[in-house]
Write a structure and sequence with these properties.
This protein has about 280 residues and is of the alpha+beta class. The chain is built from eight helices and nine strands. Helices cover about 50% and strands about 25% of the residues. Bound molecules: coenzyme A.
Length: about 280
Amino acid sequence: MLGGFRSWIRRRLQRNADDAEDDLDDEDDEERDHGALVRKGEQVTLRQHVPQNREAFQRWYADPEIANLLRHDLEPLTDWQSRGYFDSFILPSSARGTCFAIHARKGKRLLGTTAITDRSRTGDTNSALFRIVIGEKDAWGHGYGTEATRLVMDEAFDTLGLDEVRLEVFSHNARAIAAYERVGFEVTGEHVEWVSRRQTELRVIEMRLTREAFLEASGDRQPGKRGSASREKRSRPERQADRVERKLAHERRRTVRREKQERKRDRGHNSANPGPSVASTD
Ligand SMILES: CC(C)(COP(=O)(O)OP(=O)(O)OC[C@H]1O[C@@H](n2cnc3c(N)ncnc32)[C@H](O)[C@@H]1OP(=O)(O)O)[C@@H](O)C(=O)NCCC(=O)NCCS
């Protein structure tokens, strides 16, 4: 019976090792298609940008309605400008952990992009600017921007070690201002810019969020769960080997426990009934 049990364990361990490899393949496919996970919220996730995001990015930045909320000259970017911006700024800063793709958690649809830029230090204070665009307009007003902002603030204060985050927003962008206030940003000032192409003035609101104000505004909220891209950087083979080893160790512990239970059951059975043992199901 013991021989049969051992071969069952061997088959089981092999199957679990195969399953673990399959899981890793799935994770690799997901990382390749959608980018490595940085932070997970309830509705959205932050991921690293991948080259496949370029097309959507260029569509967002070519949209006049978005340009009117986003750009100081209020003009959409040309195809050439947005391609250069994505390739020379978005992809590299995303790899460095300061720019993120925003995805719906369910279905993983790419919704927008967000970044921490212009990091600086004044005295003891580390600060930076925050930027965000939910480029898919049908996704506006569903709470995604507010949650994505909170997840970026988790990264800003926990991972990047910032003390405060600042931003600028046009006074006509009521939706953005409402989202920022909900996260805890406060107005610190405003200025006026002249847009010569349009012969118009722009009122720009300045806002700031400190780590303390963020924690206070967050109440009982738990920070977004960190993903693989936000953790200690190790090579992919190292991480894969580690995950396979963890899964196998877990399986070995379960098998040893089960073996012990089997032996205990056998002993109990033999002492109550010294006749031939019950046939194993192997
Ligand atoms: C600004 C932006 C990130 C906000 O994200 P969002 O997912 O649309 O916003 P949310 O649903 O999380 O929150 C919107 C808030 O504005 C309120 N709101 C929605 N529509 C509004 C409107 N037309 N006018 C005023 N407030 C509005 C909502 O009630 C909500 O506030 P509440 O949570 O206090 O109720 C997103 O709309 C966007 O990217 N817009 C285009 C680019 C842009 O403006 N970027 C910011 C540049 S500074």
